[in-house]
Amino acid sequence: MTKRLDIIDREALSAQLEELASWSGATGKARTRVLEILKEALTTGRATVRTAFESERLPGDDVVVAIAELMDDLIGALYDFTVKYVYPVANPTRGEQIAVAATGGYGRGELAPFSDIDLMFLMPYKRTAYAEQIAEYMLYTLWDLGLKVGHATRSIEDCVRLAKSDLTIRTSLLDSRFLWGDKALFAKFEKSFHAEVVAPFGAAFVEEKLSERDARHDRMGDSRYVLEPNVKEGKGGLRDLQTLFWIAKFLYGVDHVRDLVKRGALTAADARRFRKARNFLWTVRCHLHYLAGRPEERVAFNVQSAIAERMGYADRAGARGVERFMKHYFLVAKDVGDLTRILCAVWEDEHKKTRRRFRLLAGLRLGRRSPDGFAVDGERLTVADDGAFKRDPVKLIRLFHEAQRGNLDIHPKALRLVTQNLGLIDAKLRADPEANRLFMEMLTEGRDPETALKRLNEAGVFGRFIPDFGRVVAQMQYDMYHVYTVDEHTIRAIGILNAIEKGELASLHPVATSVIGEVQSRRALYVALLLHDVAKGRGGDHSEIGARVARKLGPRLGLDAWETETASWLILQHLTMSRTAFKRDIDDPKTVADFVEAVQSPERLRMLLVLTVADIRAVGPDVWNGWKATLLRELYYRAAELMTGGLPAERRGARVEEAKAALAARLADWSPAEIADHLARGYSGYWLAFDTDAQFEHARMIRAAEAEGRALHIETRIDAGRDVTEIVIYAPDHAGLFSQIAGAMALSGASIVDAKIVTLTNGMALDTFGIQDSKGGPFSDPRALKILQGRITEAISGRLYLARELEAQRASALPSRTRVFTVAPHVVIDNKASNQHTLIEVNGRDRLGFLYDVTAALTALGLQIASAHISTYGERVVDVFYVKDVFGLKVEREGKLKEIEQRLREAIAPPPADTAEPKAEAAAG
Q1: What angle do CA 651, 653, 655 make, to 5 degrees?
Q2: DSSP strands (E only) in 131-280
Q3: At the N or C end, where does the chain have fewer CB atoms within 10 A?
Q4: Is the domain of 163 the same as that of 42?
Q5: Are residues 670 and 785 both part of a single domain?
Q6: 329 and 224 in one domain?
């Protein structure tokens, strides 16, 4: 532990202040000099601690203690100067007694580099002018030093009264620590606080702190595996450790973790995990503060690499340093979760039972039959004795199976025993047929498999029983698309699959809900979803590696040969449906034909749809939307129809005539000549790309535009079901039209998710765009829509200089969070995916005007864009274009293809200034 004299020379500081007082007294000039002396001491002390931390690797929990000691000395010197020289009283009366105490985190003797300081000025029974003067002088001096100080001036009676009615104050005073002043007064406060607050409110305090913790977890996302965790307030963070200690202090009156071991509340191993977790989290928090130069608590993407480097996490084969650091973070958070769950449950079990609750639980005990080899203690399942697992290791799996089957919680003593016996999960147990049967029943037959799997994972059983899954426990994916670690994502996906099967998500996923009942291979579907990401982080294609894992693991889990092959195929193809729906033109018959060729059977199509929905939904709370649902649903229906013999290619002409006839029937109030003229405007592709309702709206729009003599006409419609705003633009067709529209939309903050480009026989373009706002919802604000339409009009007419405007907006925009990620520019040109078009796929890092840059390059290359499919996955953009050359043909000349690839790579390359690593801000002070 750092010694005080290593940080600041308290005696020398006091001597400086006394010398100042001896010749200047308490004049105004003296206060200025006091500030200078204290500021110099504060700056020197802070620099000493920071150097020790960053250069000498002082542990984080020592750093926060050292900073608290620095503040102790500073405040002590200020207090002595104030009472001796500013407001001296020779013989203070009983009413003029005062004690200065630290509360909150400072009271625990822990201060992060830029944390607030909480002080309490304590008086015996009421405020006095003398105490107010002392507090005011000290506070103004501390504020002038640039410190953030929270304060309260209270009597002992005030403290007790407020603590009884307010949980926050009760907790803060529980951490109070004497600093300076009348020590006997502070001891009197402690005695009153313990007698009138701690003793009578022990059980209630535990319950309130656990409820407060749960509410905090809900606010922070209720997962310790979010990829930008909050080190202070997040699940598995410092606040959870502090909650444990608050409860222990309230109930046991201890001041150190080692005392909990003596009291039997923690084992020695638990105490070591506690200390390691606390040190790691404090180290991360200190790095965060120093990097930001302020009290930053979120481990955001833009600092993760810097912290990893500072803490010595180097790149290794198959894992970047930042990924290794974040995996360690999540494993520590898991340790905190283990301690929180086990110890809070123990204390709850010991202290929360009221007489009424005891009678209720006694009734449950009497009425519930214990499973063989287990005991039911209240609503918790436990083992009969400490040797149960050693005698029968299968019980390590059966414990969780019986808890799931009986809708029981698991007793903390049993969980502690599981942790102590994890070594029993060896190759023999993994090969045991009964253990695998129990696991598969939890996964596929039991109620709420998500909770069962979470319990298995939290206890460390899951990763040992399925070692391939253990490799992705706490593994992050370093991007802005995935919200959770791989294991958390997978378990959530299983929960979504189970909810779909139960019909609980029918309103959100009607097609998946309707077809899952027809799936013959339920077990294969569940196993495929369980293993679909299990090979991430191994290098190579995780779908291919995962498929091999499934072929090996399937028989062990009890799958027959056909189920094993199906699960393996699903893993291999688990991205195929989303890639086809989101990146390909499903109005192109070849797109559907190629997809059907890959899927081959209606059974696989049904399973792939359900798996795809569950997988995407589990990525994060804001990833799924109506637009994606529509694309997947349409692809499913078209593939199913083709598989059952519908819509062969030779019926294309008949379908065009059917579409024209359907529209003609809707235009009954038009003259035959008007109908014939309109039907002649569309090429065959138009009649197959839109339904009758859309074609009717197009006809009405074109007729109105021509009647009014308007060369440009724009209409918008919000499609809440697809979560998009549809914009239809009727304008003279010319090269670069798409690019102009894309640029105008970028300037207006609209994101294009889909585009259908139609050229009519009269030389006009009828372009339809699906756009969303920055949150992935419809672009619906009336004022924003009006501005957007104005910019589109200006861009098409040539009055808006798009390149210049976009450059200016980029220059003035705040730095994007995507800057910390590297996305290698990549261009794929495919002449096999469509019979009539060349398909161009462009991958790059998202930025303002990305689509404009790409489409401007395509226009300059003389290419005609027929349709575009725009997808954004966090920081990664994937844009797919169906194009033809100036003659309306595929682009097949080798030289031209190379030129296209080169020009597009240049267009999407990030500007040099945007590729620089973000620099950490220098710490203030």
Answers
A1: 70
A2: 149-155, 177-181
A3: N
A4: yes
A5: no
A6: yes
Q: Which residue has the tokens 């844009």?
A: 879
Which helix H or strand E contains 381, and what residues bound it? Answer: strand 380-383
> For residue 844, what pLDDT is reported?
85
Tell me the per-residue pLDDT of 608-644, one tens digit each, with 9 for 90 and over: 999 999 999 998 877 888 888 888 998 999 888 887 6
Cα 575 off chain centre by: 22
**Three-state SS for 128?**
coil
Is residue 717 domain-shared with residue 848, that is, in the same domain? yes
Does 478 share its domain with 609? yes
Alpha-carbon gap, residue 27 to 290, rounded angstroms? 37
Structural domain contains residue 392: no
Spans of the chain, pLDDT less than 50: 1-5, 352-367, 915-925
d(CA 879, CA 908): 11
Give, as one character, the DSSP assignment of residue 6: G
d(CA 623, CA 140): 49
Q: How does DSSP classify residue 316?
A: B
- The secondary element (H helix, E strand) that includes residue 673 is helix 672-679
Q: Into how many domains does the chain fold?
A: 5
Q: Which among 433, 441, 375, 438 has a CA at the least distance from the CA of 408?
A: 375
695 and 797 belong to one structural domain: no
Same domain flag for 834 and 821: yes
* Beta strands 409-410; 99-102: pairing state: unpaired
In sequence order, what are the beta bridge partners of 272? none
- State whether 748 and 766 are in the same domain: yes
Task: Walk across the sheet containing 149-155 and list its strands.
Answer: 149-155, 117-123, 99-102, 177-181
| Burial readout 254-272 (b: 16 or more C-beta within 10 A, e: otherwise) | beebebbbeeebbeeebbe
518-543 pLDDT, tens digit per residue, is 898 899 999 999 999 999 888 788 99
Tokens of 573: 């193809």
pLDDT of residue 366: 39
- pLDDT confidence of residue 220: 61
pLDDT digits (tens, 9 = 90+) for 453-504: 999 998 999 999 999 999 999 887 766 566 788 999 999 999 999 999 999 9
Pairing of strands 380-383, 409-410: parallel
Q: In CATH, what number is assigned to the domain containing residue 199?
A: 3.30.460.10
End-to-end CA distance of the chain: 24
Strand 724-732 relative to strand 713-719, pairing: antiparallel
Residue among 897, 830, 842, 888 at smallest CA distance from 685: 888
The reply to whether 772 falls in a domain is yes
Q: Write down the pLDDT at residue 347.
A: 63
pLDDT score, position 363: 37
Residue 59 domain flag:
yes
